[in-house]
């Protein structure tokens, strides 16, 4: 009998509404069950957790906090086998609308990107596992050709390199990936590099290939995925970009999330508008992407999705149709196949699967 898989969903809503939901996935029965719902935090639009499962970190994606500009990041202790969350620490993010949070591989740093605040902040994590006060804030400057979406910098994620020595910030407003480096002796971060994307691309999220040799960035505004070689630490070498939409599609659509399968054979990208996942096969020798198909997410505006560590299951959060849908991943083709099960959650925007 397979062990149930623990899944956490973040959603938009007021602090009085359910913002975080814990689900369990029964692999044998291919079913999702809603275990616990939590209120008390406004717009927890992105979540992460330490490897031990002691703490859940959530951003509160708001523009003001206590009358001051900016949002916050909140750390919860997970108690009673996930049936209780107790707030143990909160910190201002020093920027409006924090939309992404990530721990580095060593769990010594926690990074948050402020979408409307034109900045990224990094917090040192204490030995207890709780983040301390902000260590550094990096402010971005620049614009892009899309006047309505690129009028200012919009850092959209914060991704640590596999060795934890570099921090990559895809900035949708600047069409750049800003790169910051860690001086381990001084425990300080500093600007390292800046990588240009195509004008108007709008880079949003980024994932490394399990081999560590490639990275993939999803571009929200022009619906593409850009491949990078990662042969030198801290240095992204831009390669080709491929579309996430079928050639016959003529409507409006914006990309959201990108995921690499645990075995590195496939890359997945979500389309909001086309309401689908684009699936690409990965060339084992070069990391190059080849289109493998499109699958409907069976809902509207799939903002986020995730794949279980065993690579067998995919869960897609459809923000505008209030659903989280379960798919079984075909191991041969990589295509997600509807598993006949979905669960109702109001405005789901983040899927986090406990490692």
From TrEMBL:
Source organism superkingdom: Bacteria
Pfam families: Lactonase
UniProt cross-references to InterPro entries, sorted A to Z: Cycloisomerase_2, Haem_d1_sf, Lactonase_7-beta_prop, WD40/YVTN_repeat-like_dom_sf
Family to which this protein belongs: Belongs to the cycloisomerase 2 family.
Protein name: Lactonase family protein
